[in-house]
Specification:
By secondary structure, this protein is α/β, with parallel strands linked by helices. It has 17 helices and 16 strands. The protein has three domains: 72 residues, Winged helix-like DNA-binding domain superfamily/Winged helix DNA-binding domain (Arc Repressor Mutant, subunit A); 123 residues, Aspartate Aminotransferase, domain 1 (Alpha-Beta Complex); 224 residues, Aspartate Aminotransferase, domain 2 (3-Layer(aba) Sandwich), CATH 3.40.640. The radius of gyration is 23 Å and the shape is globular.
Length: 461
Amino acid sequence: MWTPDLEHYKGPRYTAIADAMADAIKSGELNDGDRLPTHRALADQLGVTVGTITRAYTEAERRGFVNARVGRGTFIATQHTQGQRFRIPGEAEPNAVDLRLNLPVAKDRADVLSKAMAELAAEPEQMNRLLGYQPDIGLPEHREQAVNWLKQTGLHTSADQIAITNGGQHGIMLTLLALTRPGDIILSEAMTYPGFMAVTHQLHLRPQPVAMDEEGVIPSAFEDACKQFSPRILYCTPTLQNPTNAIMSEIRREALADVARRYNVWIIEDSVNSNLISEAPTPLAEIAPDKVIHINSASKTLAAGLRVGWLVSPPEVRQQIANALRASCWMTSPLLAEIASRWISSGLAQTLLEQQKEELTQRNLLLDQYLGPYGLQSNPYSLHAWLELPELWRSSEFIAAADKENVKVIGEDSFIVAQYRAPQAIRLSSSCAWSLNHLEKGLKVLARLLQEEPQPTLSVF
């Protein structure tokens, strides 16, 4: 059990414990993932009150080097390693079925990209224009095409409301850079996109979870959090929520917008999955254009490597976002934005989107075939599915058992915000598998494991 020597630390006991923890991390005595002693055990060891340990652990969490999990304990989770968890790994193991990442289904894009580049090469004046500096928010014609692309999600906007970004992740960071300061409390779904959490840690923000149900964020819980924390922002994904696949009804969306207006809270609407759904519910940005920053991207639908996204914002914050864009990268590559715009205007983007949806439909049928009986939360057009595990399984044990059979999945820990008590569950990204046959191979393993009981382990306390 880690027991710090507090003799050389000044100040209140709780800050001394947090300082000692920071030093132990620097020296390597404590490492990422290490479980800290229980509040009672460390209090007894140091001869202080349980309340002092609680304050110490809270201070350590505020500084960003521990994560507390209700019912599980407190774990070392350094700023660096929290960012490391959100990344694209290197080459996958040759025989592994990797279902960890929400990637678009791999399709050949070489021909359509070559054609677009050949067309541009035949227009030297335009090519040279695209290779020069451009306005921070993007060229007008690129923003006009973005208007057309966003219409299919139900959002009606104008080019002057749009900024071109380096994908959806960049859009999230721009919004938080523009509207928050270090130490600000922001809200999100209790389980949410890890990329959002990576940004909050990098910007030293304090995320707080808002309770969810089968539709996502619960409006009454959002209002309670507004009263308690006076937050600046709520981040959410109303359509095909990551990781649960929840889709908010229009009534739910209107209720969230009402709370945001009454408490003057901005909503970041992550809409990167919305294009995958035909006739999706009305976007939050359409319901409350005065309170919603809307983010969309080509990454999940056209080609992740384009790194082109679109951010729609109200006039009140548009200049702040443009300032953040200039500070972060000056501008999104006009060359890449031109390719995306040409694909949209020619109708090719829609064709590529339909191909993506067709492939996802086949993959999700396989998911339902093998894992549907276990309460799988899936959608025909989603990149992922969510599976709450049978009572005897803990997600860490299930992940380890699957890994032994060369199937890679991730659990609820990757998505939990702060101390939210989440179910034991795994997320399955069917889009990540190399092929239908490869996916089916992995699903057979998972279905067999779900029929079994976990192997008993010996624990020594």
